[in-house]
DNA sequence: CGAATGACCAAGC
DNA sequence: GGCTTGGCCATTC
């Protein structure tokens, strides 16, 4: 069942500007639950359409997705369309967080 | 209802 | 300084 936490996740993810990315822990912290980064991932896993889930990545700037609804390749492709430079290394896709990380405070 | 799981993170070795 | 281990907490079995 989708709790308010989920709705907050979706609302916040929608605020991520085009061409920027955020981390799971960052989203969780912004929702006042810094220990619930995994739940953010779970929320995105069952996210409705029109949610820019591809802009949420892990702390290291790596795309660690591998499920049915979405693949790393798809995410990398979507991010490239937004103008983000995605690097393929060691079987995974990486992003320069220093350059593309979104800061909610701004 | 107890135990396992996961689109994560931080600390420890 | 790179790899392993535990802790998170809602969801699933």
Plain-language structure description:
The protein is an alpha+beta fold. It is built from 5 helices and 4 strands. It has a two-stranded parallel ribbon. Helix 2 crosses helix 3. The longest helix is centred in the first third of the chain and has 11 residues. The termini are far apart. 24% of the residues are buried. It binds a DNA duplex (13 and 13 nucleotides) through helix 2, helix 3 and strand 2.
**Tally of DSSP β-strands:** 4
Question: Which structural class fits the helix and strand makeup?
Answer: alpha+beta
Basic shape: globular
- The total of helices stands at 5
Low-pLDDT runs = none
Give the distance, in angstroms, between the N- and C-terminal Cα atoms: 32 Å
Largest sheet: 2 strands, parallel
In order across it, which strands form the biggest sheet? 1-2
**Helicity level, as a percent range?**
25-40%
Primary descriptors:
two-stranded parallel sheet; 106 residues; globular; DNA-binding; two-stranded antiparallel ribbon; alpha+beta; 4 strands
Topology:
Layout: H1 4-14, E1 22-23, H2 24-30, H3 37-45, E2 56-57, H4 72-81, E3 86-89, E4 92-95, H5 97-100
Parallel strand pairs: 1-2
Antiparallel strand pairs: 3-4
Helix pairs in contact: 2-3
The structure holds a DNA duplex (13 and 13 nucleotides).
Quick synopsis:
The chain is built from five helices and four strands; from the N terminus they run H-E-H-H-E-H-E-E-H.
């Amino acid at each position: 069942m989708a709790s308010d936490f989920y709705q907050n996740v979706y609302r916040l993810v929608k605020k991520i500007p085009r061409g920027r990315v955020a981390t799971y822990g960052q989203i969780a912290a912004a929702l006042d639950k810094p220990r619930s980064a995994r739940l953010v991932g779970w929320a995105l896993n069952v996210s409705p359409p029109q949610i820019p889930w591809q802009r949420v990545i892990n702390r290291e700037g790596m795309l660690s997705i591998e499920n049915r609804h979405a693949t790393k390749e798809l995410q990398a492709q979507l991010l490239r369309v937004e103008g983000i430079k995605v690097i393929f290394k060691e079987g995974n896709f990486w992003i320069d967080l220093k350059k593309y990380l979104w800061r909610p405070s701004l």
